[in-house]
């Protein structure tokens, strides 16, 4: 499973550095320089950014999917381009989709639909304000508002159905499909990690492999997607449970390649459909 050619439109040609590396003196006039200093002191642990040393207009960010969402434990990569007139205008952001559509706001082409980026006409107060908006605000908004618990309702046409029986039912199915796509994202990320994040990807999945498998087993046993941290006892659809069990075999194979031990024997088998033969 390879990454599409749209996944690296602004690939850094040479080396990159962690955002904790301060900009060099001869680059301090570039609009990205104050961004680096600000992010250095404010980034949450679930977001990591690396700067391209040979291209002052480029950064690459990775966001870890939050607990309680269908994106939990996944890695989601974004390339960031700073125009010369930044911050008078917002940065340009491209999502590494791998050809998958995992959210109404994240297109398979890599487009990120956000009011802050000017790619969606939202409330004026939600749009990029040169004197107020920051790169940190943008990254946190992607994590909290886009990669959220119920992404189905990110679609404006469906937002009005939130809280209704039909809306919640469609949202549930959508989140199931998103979780499967998130597993696929994990696989292509391990097979072909974004440049300069190879060790980050390996370490992340090596450390979280057992937690990811534990959550998947919970879904296979019938827990609803997003519910592992909530303790709900509702039983999930048989189709979703089966799809998780089947695709997790591929995920486990990739974990084993990373050197994670004792995984093959603890993956739950697909659920068995019991039929009534008493009639």
From TrEMBL:
CDD domains: UBCc_UBE2O (cd23837). Pfam families: UQ_con (PF00179). Residues 26-187 form the UBC core domain. Keywords: Transferase, Ubl conjugation pathway. Residues 1-32 are annotated as: Disordered. GO terms for molecular function: transferase activity. Residues 1-30 have a biased composition (Polar residues). This is (rape) hypothetical protein. The lineage of its organism: Eukaryota, Viridiplantae, Streptophyta, Embryophyta, Tracheophyta.
């Amino acid at each position: 499973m390879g990454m599409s050619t749209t996944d690296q439109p602004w690939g850094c040609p040479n080396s990159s550095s962690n955002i904790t590396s301060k900009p060099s003196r001869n680059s301090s006039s570039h609009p990205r320089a104050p961004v680096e200093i600000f992010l250095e002191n404010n980034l949450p642990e679930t977001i990591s950014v690396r700067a391209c040393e040979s291209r002052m207009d480029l950064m690459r960010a990775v966001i870890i999917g939050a607990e309680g969402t269908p994106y939990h434990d996944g890695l989601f990569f974004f390339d960031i381009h700073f125009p010369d007139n930044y911050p008078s205008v917002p940065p340009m952001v491209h999502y590494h989709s791998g050809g998958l559509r995992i959210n109404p706001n994240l297109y398979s082409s890599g487009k990120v639909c956000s009011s802050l980026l000017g790619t969606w006409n939202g409330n004026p107060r939600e749009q990029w304000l040169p004197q107020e908006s920051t790169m940190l605000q943008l990254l946190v908004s992607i994590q909290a508002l886009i990669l959220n618990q119920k992404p189905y309702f990110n679609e404006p046409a469906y937002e009005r159905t939130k809280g209704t029986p039909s809306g919640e039912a469609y949202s549930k199915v959508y989140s199931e499909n998103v979780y499967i796509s998130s597993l696929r994202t994990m696989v292509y990320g391990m097979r072909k990690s974004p440049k300069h994040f190879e060790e980050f990807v390996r370490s992340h999945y090596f450390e979280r492999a057992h937690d990811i498998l534990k959550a998947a087993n919970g879904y296979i046993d019938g827990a609803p997607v997003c519910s592992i941290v909530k303790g709900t006892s509702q039983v999930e659809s048989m189709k979703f449970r089966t799809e998780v069990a089947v695709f997790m075999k591929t995920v486990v194979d990739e974990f084993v390649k990373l050197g994670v031990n004792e995984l093959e024997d603890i993956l739950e088998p697909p659920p068995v459909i019991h039929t009534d033969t008493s009639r």
